[in-house]
Amino acid sequence: MSAAGPESGACPPVCAADVERLAAARVPAEVWDFVAGGSGDESVQAANRAALDRVRLLPRILSGTGEADLSGPLLGSTAAMPAVVAPMAYQRLLHPDGELAAARAAAKAQVPYTICTLSSFPLEDIAAIGGTTWFQLYWSRDRGQVLDLVRRAEGAGCEALVVTVDVPVMGRRLRDMRNGFALPRSVTAANFGAEPLTATHTRQAGASAVATHTGLAFDPALGWGDLAWLRENTTLPLVLKGVLDPRDAARAAELGAAAVVVSNHGGRQFAGAVASITALPSVVDAVAGRCEVLLDSGIRSGTDVLRALACGADGVMYGRPVLWGLAADGEAGAGLVLDLLRTELQEALLLSGCPDLAAARGLAAVLG
Prior knowledge:
Keywords: Flavoprotein, FMN, Oxidoreductase
CATH topology: TIM Barrel
Number of helices: 14
Structural class: alpha/beta
Order of helices and strands: HHHEEEEHEHEHEHHHEHEHEHEHHE
Number of domains: 1
Cofactor: FMN
Protein name: Alpha-hydroxy acid oxidase
Family: Belongs to the FMN-dependent alpha-hydroxy acid dehydrogenase family.
Radius of gyration: 20 Å
Domain FMN hydroxy acid dehydrogenase: 8-368
């Protein structure tokens, strides 16, 4: 990876944390805060990591296999590993090629890429990269605009709609507020056409311009009736992202959701939320096989993916590390973190005696 620089004599990155350090040195401090920060005191981010580290697995032995098959279905498509690139906004903040570079990396890695409503390239341009794409939907105050985005996603060949359900308002992200963070004029919400100077670009002391824009644009009153309406207006599989309570998971399955994503938004929304992996087993029990279950928030390694599988997940969403890779070295950097995840997962499967993903889901997990 060129980000390390052969002239520096440094070892190339061998894990996501190495890429994180490279990325932090390459982007402006306030952009790094926007990517890295969480809501409130950021304790939910710490809880995600601590909870994942507490999950310890009982490896099996003498499996009789010298290789592991990482591939499997996610919403009907076969992925090379049980991971989806999570929806993340405004990726041109990290690299000029933004979402286009990240989508190319995902396509090469043969994993789905989730296009964000707030992408900084139009969704059609990102989907045209190829590979499997899903479209993440924030619920606009204008239902006509919601339907327009859905039709565009359908027309572009997206294979699922990921409805984010944990952002009635944006959580108080104190780093952004202290920085008075606003987007540079070169970065816009490209799915909404030519943008003049808007709330996203207007600095205000003690406030996040991105949060101001979210409050103006998106409906805080999203409810189950809206999701039922959406179900009636598209044939695409629906994925609900931001589910933690098993009662909500059960209701999503009853509504016909194809999947739920157990997520606390990477610690960026409710500052008192439970760690995602802590909520995972009860959600898996509640849906009882009626829909797929993905885990989001805090995944940093192949061992984390194995932990999620052993706790009942069908796969994971992989977020911030892809942004780190993008910031460090564009498409090559994003591709590197996906390659590292695959390598780590393959090793974790072999070391735990699992020839495939089904065996991984049969591992016993204990709290260490």
